[in-house]
Design goal:
Chain A has 112 residues and is an all-beta fold. Chain A is built from no helices and nine strands. Chain A has strands at residues 9-13, 18-23, 31-38, 45-50, 53-56, 61-64, 70-75, 84-92, 106-111. In chain B, 0% of the residues lie in helices and 50% in strands. Chain B has no helices and eleven strands. In chain B, strands 2, 4, 5, 6, 9, 10 and 11 form a seven-stranded mixed β-sheet that branches. Chain B is globular and about 35 Å long. The mean pLDDT of chain B is 92. The chains are: A mainly beta (112), B mainly beta (115). Chain A binds chain B through residues 31-32, 34, 38, 41-46, 49, 87, 91-105, and chain B through 4, 31, 33, 35, 42-45, 48, 55-56, 58, 89, 91, 93, 95, 98-109, 111.
Chain lengths: 112, 115
Amino acid sequence: LAKTTQPISMDSYEGQEVNITCSHNNIATNDYITWYQQFPSQGPRFIIQGYKTKVTNEVASLFIPADRKSSTLSLPRVSLSDTAVYYCLVGDIGAAGNKLTFGGGTRVLVKP
Amino acid sequence: EPEVTQTPSHQVTQMGQEVILRCVPISNHLYFYWYRQILGQKVEFLVSFYNNEISEKSEIFDDQFSVERPDGSNFTLKIRSTKLEDSAMYFCASSDTGTKSDTQYFGPGTRLTVL
């Protein structure tokens, strides 16, 4: 299982772009990179997933360089409601071992 | 958008009592999971379930825990004799195909307090 490292916390202001970088030096060929968001006392919520290059959806963008040893989650123009913990997860696409392994995540605080 | 639901939202019980936490996964999903999160700690995997049997379980999921899909819609987690250290948020999740590239959708959680 590839270990991930991400900042413990980040502060931002409303309207700014937030970029959270996750390091996963031991990522394997079959591994996907997935980001979840968790608000206090709620279940994790899927944000975005990618394998390589760039992925964009209505919530965020995910940038993955060619060596795939890191990835950056980009949240455009954050609002106060984006205050949450963001988790970077890395895992293979095999059918065996379906569990998600969460690290400590990055606590993002958006200030007015 | 379909969602995973869980009941109750909060359960308070005495140590040694049995509790059953209930979940209704997304209707066309085939894989079901339980996770827990002790206050201030990481989300931890407990068990995955497919085709009416456990696919994988963690070290946390000992003989005091069991899971069941009693009908076509519910998925339950039973703790036979609760301990103080079982106090946590318990999250149910479901996914369609069960591979790690597959999105797992989480419910809102049940807060279990063991006194």
